[in-house]
Amino acid sequence: xxxxxxxxSGGGTNLQAILxxxxxxxxxxxxxxxxxxxxxxxxxxxxxxxxxxxxxxxSPKSYDNREEFHKALLAELQKNQIDLVVLAGYLVAVxxxxxxxxxxxxxxxxxxxxxxxxxxxxxxxxxxxxxxxRGVKITGATVHFVDTGTDTGPIILQKAVEVQQxxxxxxxxxxxxxxxxxxxxxxxxxxIANGKVSVQDGKVQISR
Length: 208
Known about the structure:
By secondary structure, the protein is an alpha/beta fold. Helices cover about 35% and strands about 25% of the residues. The protein has six helices and nine strands, in the order βαβαβαβαβαββαββ. The strands form two sheets. A seven-stranded mixed beta sheet has the order 3-2-1-4-5-6-7, with helices on one face. A two-stranded antiparallel sheet has the order 8-9. Strand 4 (about 85), helix 4 (about 95-100) and strand 5 form a beta-alpha-beta unit. It is globular, with a radius of gyration of 16 Å. The model has no long low-confidence stretch (mean pLDDT about 95).
């Protein structure tokens, strides 16, 4: 049974998609062991509490420096014996200390088709604003392993979403969530939980 540690910063819609997928048997051989947020007011923590899942706030504001914050976060993951760290709308950069402790065991969902509209500064609505400003016709979402760069780790799954005339960033964000993020994040977790994902020469191999 793969022990999942979910890191979130806000409402937790991707967390809810994971919980729903577990309930529906879309994700097998896995369970959410802890939900951690940098934001004490994150609704994601309530979603976890309502399910009886340990919900913990570890905020940089509570520590004298970033290194102490990073140590506390790593210690909490290790205490819960986490096998896979899932960044589900986590808006804090994961430091090399944690990446090195979990090589190819941290995944992130990004709301674009990497390598487009990713990297430093592209998060949340900024991604969708960038898509609309550029006038592209197809966007989507990407699940990837996390390395020490920003959105640079090996890609696991991608799903395309059509950009429609008249879209606002908010409307496009919702469509990308519904049509891509909430589908491929649970799928990726299930593949990993069942030993169907490997990384060779920096690229992901999937056996179905």
